[in-house]
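Lesson 9: reading folded outputs for more than one chain in a single document. The general rule is that every protein is listed as its sequence immediately followed by its structure tokens, and records are never interleaved. Here is the first one.
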Amino acid sequence: MKSLYIYSKQVGGGDISEVVKIERREMLEKIKDVVEICGDLYVKSQSALESLFDELRRVGYQIDNLREADYRKKDGVSVETMEKNGWSLWFAHIDVRRGKCASCNGLIDVCGIQSHGHKCELCGAVTYYDIIDGTRVQFSFIQRNGDDSGIADITMKAKRWDTEAGYLYFYPEIFDGLWLQGERVKQYFETNKDKWEEVEEDGKKLIRVIYPQPWNRKVSAIEPSDISRHYFNHKIVRVWENKEYDDCSSDFPLSESMSIYEAWHWAPLKRSPRLHEKIIGAAGMVSRCSYYYQDGRPAFYDLYLQRMRLFVEHFTELNLDAWDRMIRRAERSGPGMIMTIARFCHDKPEVDNSPNFGNILVGLGKALDGQKLIDGEMTAMVDAIKDPRESEKFFGVFRK
């Protein structure tokens, strides 16, 4: 059985592409003008698109026309806008994922398999419990009537979940949350005593809260942010040609889904103030400077550089040799790489650099730990503090 490669290209003696393999007897390489970047397919012509569809359907893919997608109609976005702005216009996906019951080893539907109390359709065994005795639940009390406790949470250990009655029972011990610790956790618990009640079961005191299944914010007393320790009586596998693969196996020969772009509507892209966003986004990276650490640590590794090069080569008017020279000298940090690429793409680039409260947390955290902040970190932290919305988010963490 041969492997069918969607796209492969040699540059400078090394394979710089990510090769997406589809198990078929024929090679998709015969289709010209199809370029794979970051798992997505960019097609340069209508004829290439039709040939690609033939190959994908022969393998077993279903192909959705996103021009007819509900979200486009709901948002009032025109097809012309999708084409001009380079939106994905097709979505290919294949149904290969199955659940495997640990009790009977049968293959079952994955729909609902990790919902609390789900049962195997073959043998009737429970495949999953979300909450069992000893599960730790980190949660916030839901505030109503205009109450505001800022960012606050608490952790408690569950005893059981009565899904029929819609109650969750906790042991009375209180543990630190992510945002609150020590006495402040206890104060938070007592402040919200109208949202829980103390009950007794088998001579032991428990804390009971309203927690329906399915969860409904309008009804529930709590909103979990983390639930750890579940009961699993199944695993997820992928099945192709009667062979099972572990869910995370790198040997699986198919890409389960792919976005497909009709590049002839917008390529080649000319130099522009925001061209860098298209290039960086195609590589699967964020083009906002404040998203990254500001201390100079690397963020753009070789894989991302390879993806960007493919996009530049096939879908822009940029000089590829000049691009290669620029990349060799570019700083690998998030902000450094973004600014270098942006300046290469246009003399007056428009770069998104909006610091957020995460920059405050990181900056103050390092300062309190005795570490020195570099200029970029200090600037991002100060700018975020000056922003009323971001500073409000930050100080909300410390409200009582």
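And here is the second record, again sequence then tokens.
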Amino acid sequence: MTVRLQETDDVTLEQMPVLWKKDQMNTSIQKKEGGYQLIRFFLIWAIVGHHILTTASENNIPVPFLINRVSYRISAGIGHVAVSMFFMLSGALLWRNHKTIESYKKYFFNQVVKILVPLWICTVPLILVDYVKNPGIVLSEYARSTIGYNLLGVDLYVRIFKGFYPYHVCGEWFTSVILTMYLLYPLLRKASVGKRTRILTAVLITGFFLINLRYGIMTAGNGWYSFTRGLFFFYAGILFEQYKGRIDSNRCAGVAFICFCIIFLFFNRTMFGSVFLPNTAAALCSFVVLFRLSGLLRPVFAKPFFFRMIDGTCRYSYLIYLTHHYLILLFMPLLLDQEANTVRFCIFIVFISALIYGFVKMISPPVRFALGKLSGMV
């Protein structure tokens, strides 16, 4: 039996026949970012988990042994692996969606708006909460004189070149790097068209990345917050999307998985004398493995429960990124203490994840409305 799908605004998923729902979910997963949905889902919750662990450490709250051991097995933890993969994901999707650019004016406007407008809208409710919590900080000279840097998405530039971190309630160093990568993309796209220029660009970017790991010119946070790191993985994502027809195979995924296991077991702290390389290699291997898994497990992810869970997270992933850390910092000291056990800690993980998702779902309508209005201006 063949089911013909057509777009409709009048029928909801709940009203459709079961067979229709399954086919629509499969079609949606294939159309929406190809096999990148599972990667995005994994990355955003890995970053949330990373900040739960770092906030617990800052507040002297005990973390369950197994969770802590696995999360920090690789240098700097799974959160930094996920951030690197996010840069890679952004490069792959930008190449997939913008192989050609008809209007540079429209492209630059839309990319800046897409990054900054959600940041501004998310800041409003969180800064009100911060004012109730500690009005002195919000009204201080420091906050009033530096929040503008945050709202322009240049936090990391300020941290590197001015030596301090701007006041912020959402959006962190990642925003500065990804905004820069989006603005550089047209140049990187031109450098990726021909085979020779593509190879030369990859060599130069990799060289800058490795040099910066050694000398830390454009970095902060002990070298982990880095523009060259973002550029390296962003361009790796562009190359992945170009060559994924060759890379996306059981053989490549198997080799990548074996390499990841070797890193995880034997080279998790340093590699060739660098604490950064284990994390870098783990991110590259994980990306290949997760992309392949998303294809192999597509029938599973098409089931209603998994589809709604993955699709819902991916729809709000940027808003989750912007707001999650502040919400964790706000609620963890209230709900956990130094006497917290494993059960309480796991309950908090479930609670804060649900709270973050509910919050971003609540603020997403004004974000969508603003982006819809602004996207038609150019």
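What the second record shows: The longest strand covers residues 219-220.
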